[in-house]
Specification:
Layout (H helix, E strand, L loop, with lengths): L17 H8 L3 H8 L7 H13 L15 E6 L6 H15 L3 E6 L7 H10 L4 E5 L11 H8 L4 E4 L10 E4 L1 H14 L5 E5 L5 H18 L3 H5 L2 E3 L4 H13 L4 E4 L2 H13 L9 E6 L12 E4 L2 H20 L10 E4 L2 E3 L21
Parallel strand pairs: 1-2, 1-3, 3-4, 4-5, 5-11, 6-7, 6-8, 8-9, 9-10
Antiparallel strand pairs: 10-12
Helix pairs in contact: 1-2, 1-3, 4-12, 7-8, 10-11
């Protein structure tokens, strides 16, 4: 916990000073005293501000004010190397803590525990519920019966990024198709006609949805046939290396604009373009997807489609809490299952620009 360290020559932490806490919380010292002594007559929001001030200043909360956990909730994510996953994890954990639950972060790593093994460990710890982020539910080749077993054992859960109609649980997703369409429209408005898509493996639902939106946008914007549009799609890995590999084919095909399935892939495309002596955005414009925290500081700052992380994470926790309450009340009929779909937002920065007259990256396109 960060905060102010108060000197104490005797080695015993100094007691909290009411004036410091009151100033931090923007309340009176009398209000602070009432909160610390567990007295009534203080609004819940004000009480929370005082407790937050204790945390910020580095003071331990009095034992009587320490909240008992409502239960453990597992958060299963694929990895931490892609900055969008820690961004989700932070907001989900904060939201869970605000509801009184203790989050347990479970990360899959190469050679480490699988999703099924992590779920088994969480069940052994008696978790109250589980949040899955970009898990096997997004893989069309994965067996969805693993989630049916969770339902049969009475474990509430919610799934983020990916949809499967055979899984009986709430889903939260960005509108991947809309993301691809708005990226294509942006590049088209800048004068680009030969636009490609670098996206993840076709077996993943978000990849399929982005590809479908991209193909539809090319058909609408440029009158390409579906076959022509689909040839502009490169399925690869959701990584810098994957973006680099996809860029090789798209640049060979004369693309002057590239839409990517993630920000990391977009960085791979930028690197591939520069290795060919092409300028970004002078010769090639690149659009990412996610808008994780550091993307605005890349060279050039990356134009991207922002995934609505805050809204999605908050909605996922809300849906899980509802599931938990339904189970606790013993209701046999579950709430109506649905997929909550959130619209992303295009963030224009320095990696996209107008098409230079005559630019085709050295190739005459076979189609428009």
């Amino acid at each position: 916990m960060g905060g102010v360290t108060l000197p104490d020559l005797g080695g015993t932490p100094a007691p909290p000073r009411l004036s410091d806490i009151a100033a931090q919380a923007d309340v009176s010292e009398a209000t602070v005293s009432r909160v610390l002594n567990g007295k009534a007559g203080v609004a819940a929001s004000t009480r929370q501000r005082v407790l937050a001030a204790l945390d910020v200043l580095g003071y331990e909360r009095p034992v009587r004010l320490r909240r008992r956990s409502a239960g453990l909730v597992g958060l299963v994510i694929p990895e931490l190397t892609n900055p969008i996953f820690p961004a989700f994890a932070q907001i989900i954990e904060q939201s869970l803590a605000g509801h009184g639950y203790t989050p347990v972060l479970c990360t899959q790593m190469p050679g480490g525990a699988t999703e099924d093994e992590l779920v088994e460990q969480l069940e052994e710890r008696g978790v109250t519920g589980i949040v899955f982020l970009s898990g096997l539910h997004a893989d069309t080749r994965a067996d969805p019966s693993r989630y049916a077993r969770l339902v049969s054992r009475g474990v509430p859960f919610v799934l983020i990024n990916g949809y499967n109609a055979r899984i009986d649980a709430p889903f939260v997703s960005p509108d991947d198709g809309a993301a691809a369409r708005m990226a294509v429209r942006h590049l088209a408005e800048l004068g680009h006609e030969r636009i490609g898509l670098a996206v993840g493996p076709a077996r993943y639902v978000p990849s399929r949805r982005k590809a479908e939106g991209f193909v539809a946008a090319l058909e609408e914007s440029f009158g390409l046939s579906r076959g022509q549009a689909e040839r502009r799609v490169q399925h690869t890995l959701f990584s810098v290396e994957g973006g680099h590999a996809a860029a090789a084919a798209l640049l060979d095909d004369g693309c002057t604009g590239v839409v990517c399935g993630s920000d990391l892939m977009a960085l791979g495309v930028v690197r591939a373009a520069r290795q060919r002596g092409l300028a970004v955005p002078g010769d090639v414009s690149v659009v990412g997807f996610d808008d994780s925290q550091l993307i605005a500081f890349t060279d050039p700052p990356l134009t991207t489609v922002r995934q609505p992380v805050q809204a999605m994470a908050t909605a996922a926790v809300g849906a899980l809490i509802e599931e938990i309450h339904e189970r606790a009340q013993g209701r046999q009929t579950p709430p109506q299952r649905t997929e909550f779909v959130f619209r992303p937002e295009l963030v224009v920065r320095g990696s996209t620009g107008p098409l230079r007259p005559g630019a085709d990256n050295g190739r005459a396109p076979a189609d428009r």
